[in-house]
Design goal:
This protein has 104 residues and is α+β, with helices and mostly antiparallel strands. The protein has helices at residues 3-9, 37-43, 83-89; strands spanning 27-29, 49-52, 55-59, 67-71, 75-79, 96-97, 100-103. Strands 1-2-3-5-4-7-6 form a 7-stranded antiparallel sheet, with no helix packed on it. The longest helix has 7 residues, at 3-9. It starts with a helix and ends with a strand.
Length: 104
């Protein structure tokens, strides 16, 4: 876990860098494969979980209220946005995430 040390280095106020009830809840989780945190971050191909303001925004496993998303070269994940509905509403159909094409 790199939360506390990163918050200290960035001189963030108290409560940041901690996972606790009522605290600021922006975090990501990545597969570490028994690596040191810095190495795991550098080698991560994708986040396994993204939480913003205490709400799950992206997950690699099915979670209530998330919609399936398949990103070319990244695999299947689940996101807060309904990409199928968004695709129907947009004038263009080629949606990309971090430069990679979003597949149905």
């Amino acid at each position: 876990m790199v939360t506390n040390e990163a918050a200290r280095i960035l001189r963030l106020p108290g409560g940041f860098g901690e996972i606790a009830p009522g605290g600021p809840a922006d975090l990501i989780a990545i597969a570490d494969e028994r690596r040191a945190p810095a190495e795991a971050l550098m080698r991560a191909k994708r986040p396994e979980l993204v939480v913003v303001a205490g709400k799950i925004k992206l997950s690699t496993w099915p979670t209530a209220r998330l919609h399936p998303l398949h990103v070319n070269g990244r695999g299947k994940m689940f996101v807060a946005a309904n990409v199928s509905r968004l695709r129907r509403q947009l004038p263009f159909k080629d949606i990309r995430l971090a430069g990679r094409r979003v597949l149905e």
